[in-house]
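Please annotate this fold before class:
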Amino acid sequence: METAMQPAARERAVRKTLLGSLGLVVLAATLAAPPPASAADSARRPNIVVIVADDMGFADMGAFGGEIRTPNLDSLAKDGVRFTNFYTHASCSPTRSMLLSGVDTHLNGLGNMSEWIAPNQRGAVGYEGYLNDRVATLPQLLKDAGYHTYMVGKWHLGKQPDQIPRARGFERDFALLDGGGSYWDMTNISAVAPKSVFTEDGRYLTKLPKDYYATKTYTDKLIGYIDANRGDGKPFFAYVAHQAPHDPYHLPKDWRNRHVGEYDKGWDAVRQERLKRQVEMGIMPAGTELAERMWFVPDPIVLAPASRAILGKKMELYAGLVENMDHHIGRLVDHLKKIGEYENTIFIFFGDNGAEGTDLFGMIAGSPGSRDNLYAAINWNQTNFNAWGDPGSWVGYGPMWAQVSMTPFGQFKGWLAEGGIRNALIVSGPDVKRPAGSINHGFMHVADVMPTLLEMAGAVYPATRNGEPVPPLMGKSWGPMLAGKADSVRTDQDYLAWEVFGNRAVRQGDWKLRWQFKPYGKGDWELFNVAKDPAERNDLAAQNPDKVKAMLALWESYVKANNVILPSRGPFDTLEKDMPQRVTVYPGFPPLIYQRQFVPPKELLADPRP
């Protein structure tokens, strides 16, 4: 494990490294980007709406092979372009930090989630646990360029007055500062922080609006912000950070029963159906295999019908939550059409990480007799399945359905398999010149959003902030690709890397090198050709030692350039001991539990002799 320097020494080292690489980046940005547009030009610049779903999977939308009904998102896909090789991070706040800063997590303050800062990371530059003041944010730069800037939904990037949305460039906001909680009220997850924290226009709320429901209220607020400034000639940037479909699965009663019995068939069947549609659509290539079912997840065939129905109901709620979110996205789109702004609006939609397969509630509530377990028993006590979705209920759908959401990939949120970091992306609007409804397989990253939108808005990325150098942007503008002049913004020589919770990965071209804790990984480097094997079924490290060596060199370069400190403690410290031993899953094994009653030939049947 890397040892942390003293904070002051590390900060000086980081700034020195940045100064060395910053000059060319800033010069290129200055030469390439036009100056901020004048007021007369503002009307011709596009509005920008970035919509982020929380823990939504790659395969959940209809446009990406899902059976969940998402007509409004599908319509955006039909008008725009779907992207199948888009990467986020493996958890929420790191992804959001890169979206809003364009800078790697280990430099922007989210080198680790605030909830998991390791002892050896405390006080280190880039590990503040909030979006630090060394970065310039997307809303700050768009606001300086003449945009209105609005934010609704989940923030999860800091709670102090100098860390909240208003302080980081948003002109109007209605924000949940925490990472999750109730959709109905201010009930938070743990005893030590029992009340969720909200802000509105830079003020901390003492209570929520009447008839509050997260997804609806966020949409109502944003529509109000847009209408309040209509007619002043300025474009707007709206960051819509939906809480849905993060657990707990809270939703109005009329959205809970739209898929009754549909998932009783079990997760394996639904995954197979989704993959079939993905191949038919062109989302995945012919011959794509499903990732191996997680070794600790049972084959649904062996479960009793009642058990399958209860587990299926969890997926029914999840599907309803996604459909409700789609409905409110449709309300926003319809409003923009009504006021004549739809045709001049860029839409970007994606999920912030892989689907949630971990029992978050169990992790927080802990063991009987603990403070948080008592808090959970009192405040999250609606456990009857008929009350699921109500205030006080907590439902998450588990690893079996998370794998369905991430079809065809392996694993889910928190891990650096494709199921943790690869997500569906839709881009539509006036700057998209590719054929409407088309699909692109270019290699893309969430940090690309910042340079892409700055280019569209005519804004400039700064060289310094408050007299200090700003970290260089890590992403690449999608401009040429959206214009139809290129199929990818990256060459086979470009690479991206990830680290969170001690798990790590590098992708370059078709190849991906991955290190994960046991039993999800091998505790060693694994090599996959993710173009041919997106499910990461075949570790090719032993057959390709030179490729492993070359990609390890890229990893070391990433560590050095981005101040990576591998954590001394993390959420997976005892995982190998606590979980069942990992084994290969073979369909139909063991035959013992699949062998049906033997029925002899009728002509050989006989009663016993007297």
Notes: The chain is about 30% helix and 15% strand. The domain at 55-491 is CATH 3.40.720.10 (Alkaline Phosphatase, subunit A). The longest strand covers residues 47-53.
